[in-house]
Design brief:
The chain is mainly alpha-helical. The chain has one domain: Growth Hormone, Chain: A (Up-down Bundle). Helix 10 runs parallel beside helix 17 and helix 10 packs antiparallel against helix 20. InterPro entries: MFS (IPR011701), MFS_trans_sf (IPR036259), MFS_TsgA-like (IPR050375). Keywords: Cell membrane, Membrane, Transmembrane, Transmembrane helix.
């Protein structure tokens, strides 16, 4: 009984722990454990893109209706990130949300089994909706956790490294699809049977992982910890009410537009390849999608390397601009040229999602957990844009022409990258957190010797102390 008592999931939010000052070494284990989650939903997302085309073939549905998979999956995200998962996060903490999300993911995978067996597209969409709730819960906790667990100045690097394993999952799923789902032209019953065994294996794995999370001693990060970070760097904007955090809501809007465009391109990549490239079967299209997702994963690792030397906000602006530049030719080009344009577009998409999360959360302080729900909720763009692309493709009988839809949403998301680079009220808080010395090992050691502010006195460890210093923060802002 003692071990279960020690593993209690109930956490307070007003007391500061040492989690706000974790060094790189101290944060390695929790970051590695949470990174496993990124692979899981990368695999699930890649599987969904492959099944989109598969169900068109096997069940005889059109492109617009097949987008119901994306609508069910990403439509669940705001329900989780702004609803049940965010409530659990604010009242119980990160670990509780990790376990909750994994359990929902496992239940959804089990529900998918009989739906696939009976060839029920509507039932499978319902199962995907449950899985989306689980993954939305995991993203609500995992993205901010990776961002704030460790030295603040490396937040973009951490989240992009973790998200790179998301990219690895999106590569493996289409490869699996090309050799399993589309085997023998993808119309036989055996292919559906193979899909159901994949979902059963997923369910078993995530339930085991939930148990691992329960017994793992990962540090909990409270609102007071985040308020302390923002206060010490004088980068906090949490002196204003939550509804005046306009930087956060702009980031959420950008996430909505960007994610919608990314999901639409990946969801209809196989359609694009089979329509525009001669002699391309659905199986070959899935293999090309795996290659494009490989470019996506490579872009993440490359972006992390560049961010070591260039400010993340500048890398973000460059990558998103190049997404616009390269998606445009795919509308008019055909064959290998058009497919190559999508490959390059996916390469430059790579760092955009996690960098929007990291930049959007910088300086939120005590609003970090609540704010993360809005940014992750922007993922519901993946439920809106693919059906629009599918409808346009059916209208013009051309997926290539419909690529103008993600182009328009990329341009809308571009507004945030411009603001975070050129508008001082956006840029200054981002840069101050990026220059913070909290969690840097040699700084911590010097601070211990000199009795500096990094470690602080016990009475400073509450959110009330941070709020008492608001006049100083306000004077600094003015």
């Amino acid at each position: 009984m003692a071990i279960f008592k020690r593993m209690s999931l109930k956490q307070g939010n007003t007391s500061r722990t040492n989690a706000a000052q974790l060094t790189l070494r101290q944060s390695i284990y929790p970051l590695c454990l949470v990174t496993v989650l990124f692979f899981l939903w990368g695999f699930s997302y890649g599987l969904l893109d492959t099944l989109n085309k598969h169900f068109q073939v096997v069940l005889g549905i059109n492109r617009a209706r097949s987008a119901g998979l994306q609508a069910a999956y990403f439509g669940a995200y705001p329900l989780a990130s702004l609803g049940h998962a965010n409530w659990i996060l604010r009242h119980y903490g990160f670990k509780a949300v990790f376990i909750w999300g994994l359990c929902l993911y496992g239940v959804g995978a089990l529900v998918a089994w009989p739906c696939i067996l009976h060839r029920s597209f509507g039932g499978f969409c319902a199962a995907i909706f449950i899985i989306g709730n689980g993954l939305g819960s995991l993203e609500t906790a995992a993205n901010p956790y990776i961002t704030i667990c460790g030295p603040p100045r490396y937040s973009e690097l951490r989240i992009n490294i973790s998200q790179a394993f998301n990219g690895v999952g999106t590569v493996i799923a289409p490869v699996l699809g090309s050799y399993v789902f589309f085997k023998n032209t993808g119309t036989n019953e055996q292919s559906l049977t193979n899909v159901q065994w994949v979902y059963l294996a997923i369910a078993c794995f995530v339930f085991v992982l939930a148990v691992v999370f329960y017994f793992s001693p990962i540090p909990e990060i409270t609102d007071a910890d985040m308020a302390f970070q923002a206060d010490e760097t004088h980068a906090g904007t949490d002196i204003r009410p939550f509804w005046q955090q306009y930087r956060l809501f702009h980031a959420a809007f950008a996430q909505f537009c960007y994610t919608g465009a990314q999901v639409a391109i990946a969801g209809y990549f196989i359609n694009y390849a089979t329509e525009t490239r001669p002699n391309t079967s659905a199986a070959l299209g899935a293999q090309l999608l795996a290659g494009a997702q490989g470019a996506f994963a490579l872009g993440r690792f490359t972006g992390v390397g560049i961010m070591k030397f260039v400010k993340p906000r500048m890398v973000f602006l460059c990558y998103l601009t190049l997404c616009i530049v390269f998606i445009a030719p795919s509308i008019t080009q055909r064959g290998n040229v058009g497919v190559a344009m999508l490959f390059v577009t996916l390469f430059f998409e790579s760092i955009c999602f996690p960098t929007i999360v990291a930049l959007g959360m910088r300086g939120l302080g005590k609003y970090s957990k609540r704010g993360s729900g809005f940014i992750v909720g922007g993922v519901c763009g993946g439920a809106v844009v693919p059906p629009i692309l599918g409808a346009v493709a059916d209208m013009h009988n051309s997926t290539a022409v419909a690529m103008s839809v993600p182009l328009a949403f990329f341009i809308a998301a571009w507004s945030y990258s411009l603001c975070v680079n050129f508008v001082p009220s956006y840029r200054i808080p981002v840069d101050k957190i990026g220059e913070a010395k909290i969690g840097i090992e040699n700084v911590d050691k010097n601070d211990e010797e000199s009795g500096g502010v990094m470690r602080g006195e016990p009475e400073k460890g509450t959110i009330e102390h941070v709020e008492s210093r608001i006049p100083a923060v306000r004077e600094n802002h003015s």
